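# step 3/5: fold
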Amino acid sequence: MARPREFDTQDAIKKATAVFWEKGFLEASLPDLLDGMGLTRGSLYKAFKDKKNLFLLVLEHYEEEAVGAAKARLTDAQVPDGRARILSLFAALCAAVAAGDTRGCLLCSAAAGFEMSDPEIAEAVENGMRGIRDGFEAALRASPTHRALPDTERKALANVLLTHYIGLRVLARSRMPLGILEQSVESVARLLDMEPV
């Protein structure tokens, strides 16, 4: 009879997220993961099969937690103006950096790494990015200045906002001075204030 697992799977995935977030997929060694998760080699392989499968579960968890939180902010019906929702997301990023969080974005780090050569990891990262972009698009539909835009233009602007957001998350991880991040957020505000042509 198989012995029951003596650890919480979701807690182990959260701990693995911290390891991958700090070190990246390629640099996170098996000893790093075992130490960070508090598991034995046998327990890790039995529960998660291998490092790649564990990373895919971590990306899924990150999408539910972090991407889900970003999308919730961008689609929050309690804030009727989509422009305010967008700026709120960028302001939250700056506030996190000001509070000492320089981890950046796990998806962004993965997107810039060699792990993107793996089709399954690439698909998981792209799904997360698409989720944030869809959130920007939803916020633009709720923006008085942008709701009348044709779908193609609104999608294009959502892509531009995603690019700004990813760039700022990468800059946060590189420990760029907060003032530079804040200037970038001001440029996003100016972009949103421009009247569509």
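# step 4/5: annotate
The mean pLDDT is 92.
# step 5/5: archive (pending)
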